[in-house]
Amino acid sequence: QKEVEQNSGPLSVPEGAIASLNCTYSDRGSQSFFWYRQYSGKSPELIMSIYSNGDKEDGRFTAQLNKASQYVSLLIRDSQPSDSATYLCAVRSGGYQKVTFGTGTKLQVIP
Amino acid sequence: DGGITQSPKYLFRKEGQNVTLSCEQNLNHDAMYWYRQDPGQGLRLIYYSQIVNDFQKGDIAEGYSVSREKKESFPLTVTSAQKNPTAFYLCTSSPSGGYFEAFFGQGTRLTVV
Q: Could you tell me which residues of chain B have a Cβ less than 8 Å from any Cβ in chain A?
């Protein structure tokens, strides 16, 4: 079992819809969770970080964490074509330095 | 402007050659990391450093070497022992205190010719 799993996609949603991206992780001791957006050929940029169970909202983005189910998700409301990118889930567990990335989900927002 | 600067953006390596990728940050972050990204794969940790003059191997350190002589700088050398070096290399830094809100440099795309 991979430490951090994401569906590779592509996930296609129409413009204005809600995009839902999911991530599961294997280490129950994981402490911090991050979502990065990566455009083709570019480096990842941090969108959201979440550390406790529940929802965290920032503009059109909402991160949801459920530690009991070992599940973290990212919702993008009112999706725009500019949101089309690969979204990487990252999980910190164990020691301070151990951060594991998923392989990413490619999102396509159709105008 | 605060941030992380990687150079060069593109790098070509001949067989048997060592090459060094530069990473500089002016964010006053204690920790710095090198990751490698291959198509269809997530980021894999090569080396990390939490303080000056100290660094640890990550998951795929074989064929790579690093140094951390200054807080601002964490260069990565891809040695000839790395048999498949073609990849996208990413440097990140983060503040100390257990939080990994990492900021990435622009990346270096290394190709073997």
A: 31, 33, 35, 40-45, 48, 50, 56, 90, 98-107
| SS3 sequence of chain B | CCCEEEECCEEEECCCCCEEEEEEECCCCCEEEEEEECCCCCEEEEEEEEECCEEEECCCCCCEEECCCECCECCEEECCCCCCCCEEEEEEEECCCCCCCCEECCCEEEEEC
Identify from A42, A43, A45 which residue to disrupt to test chain B contact, counting B C-beta atoms within 10 A and taking the largest count.
A43
On the question of pLDDT at B54 being above 80, the answer is: yes
> pLDDT by residue (tens digit) across B70-79?
999 999 999 9
Q: What is the pLDDT of residues A11-65, one digit of tens each?
A: 999 999 999 999 999 988 888 899 999 999 899 999 999 999 999 999 999 999 9
pLDDT category, B99, cuts 50, 70, 90? Answer: low
> Is A87 at the interface with chain B, CB within 8 A?
no
Q: Which residues of B touch A8 (CB under 8 A)?
A: 40
